[in-house]
Amino acid sequence: MQRQTTLAKKESVQRAWYLVDATDIPLGRLASKLAVILMGKDKPTYTPNVDCGDNIVVINASKVKLTGNHPESKKNYYNVSQYNGGLRTRSAGVMKAEFPVEMVERAVWGMLPKGPLGRSIIKKLHVYEGAEHKQQAQNPQVLDLSK
Fold this sequence. Notes:
Helix 3 packs across helix 4. The longest helix is centred in the N-terminal third of the chain and has 13 residues. The protein has a single domain, classed as CATH 3.90.1180.10. Helices cover 28% and strands 17% of the residues. The chain is globular. With 147 residues, the chain is α/β, with parallel strands linked by helices.
């Protein structure tokens, strides 16, 4: 007798809210764990073509850890004008000091699928530089990723 595989439907997905403190967690490890939760790969009803992940609120993005020589050597590239010659670079140290929210969002986006599904998944990520956030009404559960 074969067992039936349960596939998630868009209407039947149950979404929870999680609160993650990014203090002293390496950026890559944080991003990979957040991507798994956002996609729903930690659930038994994971379906690759359905957005079945949970919502995540990340606080203290400015206190995320950059290991090794990354603050000086790792570069983030972006094209300001969308034309040749418009490429700008920022080191990871500058990103952490001036744009910590964008740094965490870019790291997570790099680990999500690209396309319409990935764009709907990334909207469930809410990153804040400090300890205050706007999602108190959702009563997010504290999720400890420092282990």
